[in-house]
Amino acid sequence: MPTPQDRIKLHRDRIDQIDQQMIHSIAERLNEVRQIGEIKRESDLSVYDPKRELEARTKRNELAKELGIDPLRLELIFEQVVLLARDTQSEKRGGLLRDEGKKLRVGVMGGIGSFSEAAALEHLKEQGIEDFELHYPISSENVLKDLESGHIDVGIFPIENSTAGLVTESIYAASQHRFDIQDIFEFDVVHCLMALPGVKKEDIIKIMSHQQALKQCKDYLKTHFPNAELIESTDTAEGARILEQCPDEKDLAVIAPKRCAELYHLDLVEEAIQDLKINYTRFISAQKHHE
Q1: In angstroms, rounded to a whole number, what is the distance separating the alpha carbons of residues 122 and 291?
Q2: All domains of the chain, ordered by start, with CATH?
Q3: For the chain, how are helix, strand and coil distributed in percent, rounded to 5?
Q4: pTM above 0.90, yes or no
Q5: pLDDT tens digits, one per residue of 110-155
Q6: Residue 95 confidence class, pLDDT cut points 50, 70, 90
Q7: Which residue from 187, 164, 168, 184 is spatially nearest to 176, judged by alpha carbons?
């Protein structure tokens, strides 16, 4: 009769075989992606195809549910596979293009203190760029308009969040404009609840933020503020700025990056309120399309 150790070894051997199969499957997948990349370069097509990625994610989630696998945890694994595939397809782009002797003009979706601003600053640092100026067109539509008109050299805007999914306004804007993708990168997002000085948690009956932030804190809001009125703002930082200018709004709170509390003289009511502690947003760094 096999010992427990023998039985465990049989299963571990099988796991090793499955791991080998997975690696070979990923290699095959990358080869197919490479072929698509060549076709896209020949046809001057964008590497990022949001419609295709949404369809693929939906199919994965449906199959995961059928097999009794947590779709979210499976998607976290596929996120890395997709990133690897996208790097393969694009053959990793070069650095940001700019005119020598001029500051790089960078437009972000959001206001001062927004996650887009923080993501842009981190991205520029990683690129080794110190001589730049930030512009705040607020919406992804305006970012891409400014990029096309030449008012900015680089546009940075979010396209997808690991919790809430696609940023629909960005996807729509991207479908209406031509631009070159310089890079696609990720940024950790931590949401904070803040209010005017002296306002307590029990005083809050209205909460304002960007649609994506409200989605990413959905369970928290349902648990702690089940009857609160949810108000959508154009941007998380803009919501904080608006609240600062409305001193009579003693029952209103906003969800915004922690830095906004200091920038807009608000009190931090609670930190890290997003439903999932692993919560990141994928951003596009775009440049003007060159024929």
Answers
A1: 29
A2: 4-90 (1.20.59.10), 104-189+280-288 (3.40.190.10), 192-270 (3.40.190.10)
A3: 45, 20, 30
A4: no
A5: 889 999 999 999 999 998 999 999 999 988 999 999 999 999 999 9
A6: low
A7: 168
Measured CA to CA, the distance from residue 88 to residue 20 in angstroms comes to 21
Pairwise CA distance, residues 251 & 229, whole Å: 10
Please check whether residue 152 is in contact with residue 288, taking contact to mean a CB–CB distance below 8 angstroms.
Answer: no
For residues 227 and 250, what is the distance between their CA atoms, to the nearest angstrom? 17
Q: How many CB atoms lie within 10 A of CB 117?
A: 22
CA dihedral sign, ordered 255, 261, 267, 271:
positive
User: Cα(97)–Cα(252) distance, rounded to whole angstroms?
Assistant: 43
Which CA distances in Å does 272 have to 191, 192, 234? 5, 5, 21
User: For residues 254 and 269, is the Cβ–Cβ distance under 8 A?
Assistant: no
Pick left, alpha or beta for residue 70 (phi over 0 → left; psi -120 to 50 → alpha; otherwise beta).
Answer: beta
